[in-house]
């Protein structure tokens, strides 16, 4: 158990599956006080029971609604009096070629991946500024560093998350707030299920079956960033399966 993590109040979005769920498990084991959000409350409640953290630790949250994100953070403050870490993790990846004009998917990616991250930042900043401490961890992607066919909009949102995070890093220095971007490669989660284009879904499934690594790899990165001494800010972590291009 890391002394830098035990007792910390950590809000995680998108905690109902995949990376969010894995990091919740790991941080619970490290002694963090968790507040978990996602839309599927039944899954969050099952996780809360599993981790023995109490159902009060979970809250139905759609990150595309700024009021719901604020309510999640306010709930954490009401429960614990502070927020030490926000993990802006909720996201989706409905890849498809632009010519398929899946405008609804584009809107959802912008609303969840980008605006959801911004809403998280807006929700915690006043409290962290008041505390003069905090840590905001934004989940980008290898796709935030490069773009491939079918991934233009997803990569746009994930590179925007990196840009926002870097701007945030520069602005929050006076408040002793740390910022970390974590950019994973293929990790075995439900993410490929968000693909709605059939051709893309087939190739994506195959890719993930061949390459994806377990979500605990992401949880280890979060623990690494969080366990540094307070004066050390891990700005960015980029990792991927050894076999992934
Ligand atoms: P999953 O599909 O397993 O999990 C996505 C999570 O996001 C779920 O908990 C889901 O919960 C939540 N979510 C989706 N939409 C919303 C919403 N509107 N409001 C609140 N929560 C929402 O995928 P991952 O765990 O893989 O994805 C987590 C993050 O990691 C994403 O940002 C993704 O882009 C990023 N990432 C993942 C990679 C991978 O290979 N797995 C690689 C690079 C980055 P619910 O549906 O209950 O709301």
Question: How would you describe what is shown here?
Answer:
This protein is an alpha/beta fold and 245 residues long. It has a single domain, classed as Rossmann fold (3-Layer(aba) Sandwich). The protein is 46% helix and 15% strand. The protein contains seven helices and seven strands; from the N terminus they run βαβαβαβαβαβααβ. It has a seven-stranded parallel beta sheet with strand order 3-2-1-4-5-6-7, with helices on both faces. Helix 3 runs parallel beside helix 4 (103-131) and helix 4 packs parallel to helix 5. The chain starts with 8 loop residues before the first strand and ends in a 6-residue tail after the last strand. NADPH dihydro-nicotinamide-adenine-dinucleotide phosphate binds at residues 13-20, 38-40, 61-64, 89-93, 112-113, 139, 141, 184, 186-187, 189-191, 194.
Task: Give the topology, please.
Elements: E1 9-13, H1 18-29, E2 33-38, H2 41-51, E3 58-60, H3 66-80, E4 85-88, H4 103-131, E5 134-139, H5 152-171, E6 177-184, H6 198-211, H7 216-226, E7 236-239
The structure holds NADPH dihydro-nicotinamide-adenine-dinucleotide phosphate.
Task: Considering the chains and any ligands shown, give keywords for the structure.
Rossmann fold, globular, alpha/beta, 7-stranded parallel β-sheet, 7 helices, oxidoreductase, 245 residues, Oxidoreductase, binds NADPH dihydro-nicotinamide-adenine-dinucleotide phosphate, NAD(P)-bd_dom_sf
Question: Largest beta sheet, briefly?
Answer: 7 strands, parallel
CATH superfamily annotation: NAD(P)-binding Rossmann-like Domain
Low-confidence stretches: none
Task: Determine the mean pLDDT.
Answer: 97
Domain Ketoreductase: 8-190
Protein name: Oxidoreductase
Family: Belongs to the short-chain dehydrogenases/reductases (SDR) family.
Keywords: Oxidoreductase
């Amino acid at each position: 158990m890391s002394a830098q993590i035990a007792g910390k109040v950590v809000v995680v979005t998108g905690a109902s599956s995949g990376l969010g769920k894995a990091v919740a498990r790991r941080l619970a084991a490290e002694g963090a006080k968790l507040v978990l959000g996602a839309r599927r409350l039944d899954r969050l409640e099952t996780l809360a029971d599993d981790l023995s953290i109490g159902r009060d630790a979970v809250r139905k949250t759609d990150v595309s609604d700024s009021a719901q994100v604020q309510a999640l953070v306010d709930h954490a403050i009401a429960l614990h009096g502070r927020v030490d870490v926000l993990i802006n993790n909720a996201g989706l990846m409905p890849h498809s070629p632009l010519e398929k004009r899946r405008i609804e998917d584009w809107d959802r990616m912008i609303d969840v991946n980008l605006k959801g991250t911004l809403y998280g930042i807006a929700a915690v900043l006043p409290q962290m500024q008041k505390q003069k401490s905090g840590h905001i961890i934004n989940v980008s992607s290898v796709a935030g560093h490069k773009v491939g066919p079918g991934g233009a909009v997803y990569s746009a949102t994930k590179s925007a998350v990196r840009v926002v995070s870097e701007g945030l890093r520069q602005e929050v220095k006076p408040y002793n707030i740390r910022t970390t971007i974590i950019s994973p490669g293929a990790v075995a989660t439900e993410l490929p299920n968000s693909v709605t284009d059939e051709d893309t879904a087939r190739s994506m499934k195959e890719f993930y079956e061949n390459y994806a690594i377990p979500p605990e790899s992401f949880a280890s990165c979060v623990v690494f960033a969080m366990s540094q001494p307070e004066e050390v800010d891990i700005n960015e972590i980029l990792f991927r399966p050894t076999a992934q291009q």
